[in-house]
Specification:
With about 110 residues, the chain is mainly alpha-helical. It has helices at about 20-50, 60-85, 85-95, 100-110.
Length: about 110
């Protein structure tokens, strides 16, 4: 197929820019994902605080309740982020935080 100089050049359709509504959805999804990652980090911080509890100057009952509260809060924040981040992301995090993995790394190092 040849074009002569007298035939008009076909116009290329413009690529549509995201509508304002689609742009708001994209920004909202990004903020929601960032919040979920914040929840996972908070969960890790709460979980790391549990071994500190026995060294606090409190009664035995208070230490037990604080440790239990930290554990429950850690699990609640982690699992509230799970539906947002998706199964694959959560599986990777759980594997990374697994003590089994740490022990196999220590065994390999010996």
């Amino acid at each position: 197929m040849t074009f002569d100089s007298s035939s008009p050049i076909p116009e290329v359709p413009e690529i549509p820019v995201l509508s304002a509504r689609a742009e708001r959805r994209r920004r909202r999804a990004k903020r929601l994902r960032s919040f979920a990652i914040f929840l996972v980090v908070t969960s890790c911080v709460l979980y790391v605080m549990i071994p500190i509890v026995p060294f606090l100057n409190m009664d035995r009952e208070q230490k037990a309740s604080v440790a239990l509260t930290l554990f429950i809060a850690s699990e609640v924040t982690f699992w509230s982020a799970a539906p947002i981040l998706g199964k694959e992301f959560i599986t990777k995090i759980r594997q990374w935080l697994s003590p089994k993995k740490w022990l196999t790394i220590v065994k390999r190092a010996k």
